[in-house]
Design brief:
Elements: H1 19-27, H2 51-71, H3 77-87, H4 89-102
Length: about 100
């Protein structure tokens, strides 16, 4: 952990080194950790959340983005269909097939 630091270059939106270690530390409930290269003194840190909750939020955001890309960001079905997509995997595979045909 100390020999090879977790790095976040100021010009990037994500870590450039240490993503797996960061995920492991989050799963262990570590609220803060030192990161080389990123300093935002006026930014408030979000509270740490457990790994399962973080994964659920990530999956929800991903499928919301997929629906918004397929239907349009302001389409009313984006928020209505999202809970169904999360609950029924068959709908996700159907949506993925529709997306592949568009490309």
């Amino acid at each position: 952990m100390v020999q090879d630091p977790i790095c976040w270059d100021d010009n990037h939106d994500s870590l450039t080194n240490g993503q797996h270690r960061t995920c492991a530390l989050r799963a262990a409930g570590v609220p803060y950790l030192p990161v080389e290269g990123r300093h935002l003194p006026d930014t408030a840190q979000r509270d740490a959340m457990d790994a399962r909750t973080h994964a659920q939020h990530t999956v929800r955001e991903f499928w919301r983005d997929v629906l918004a890309a397929a239907l349009g960001p302001t389409h009313p079905l984006v928020n209505t269909a999202l809970p169904l997509l999360l609950r029924f995997p068959a709908l996700r595979s159907l949506l993925s097939t529709v997306q592949e045909r568009k490309e």
